[in-house]
Design a protein that fits this description.
By secondary structure, the chain is of the alpha+beta class. The chain is built from four helices and three strands. It has a single domain, classed as YefM-like domain (YefM-like fold). Helix content is 51%, strand content 18%. The longest helix is centred in the C-terminal third of the chain and has 20 residues, at 46-65. The chain is elongated. The mean pLDDT is 86.
């Protein structure tokens, strides 16, 4: 995803239709009020993708740090949990 562009709240209100076309094309915006960031205008689904990517990265870090202390039979563990 491209870097978020910064835009003021007044300009956002004035040019909303154009901004939405740009967002549909993949561009994101950080909306500010008096110079302070207050919201991000992002393409639909961006948050879900970011959340999924963050979860995958967290799992990769965990797996890299975890040490295997004993061999385990995954099939036996799965069967153990079944009725």
């Amino acid at each position: 995803m491209p870097q978020l562009l910064t835009i003021g709240a007044y300009e956002t209100k004035t040019h909303l239709a154009d901004l939405l076309r740009q967002v549909r094309g993949g561009q994101g915006f950080t909306i500010t009020q008096r110079g302070e960031p207050v919201a991000d205008l992002l393409p639909a689904g961006t948050l879900a993708r970011r959340t999924g990517m963050a979860a995958a990265q967290q799992m990769q870090r965990f797996m890299a740090q975890a040490s295997v202390t004993a061999q385990c039979d995954v099939a036996a563990l799965l069967n153990e949990g079944r009725d």
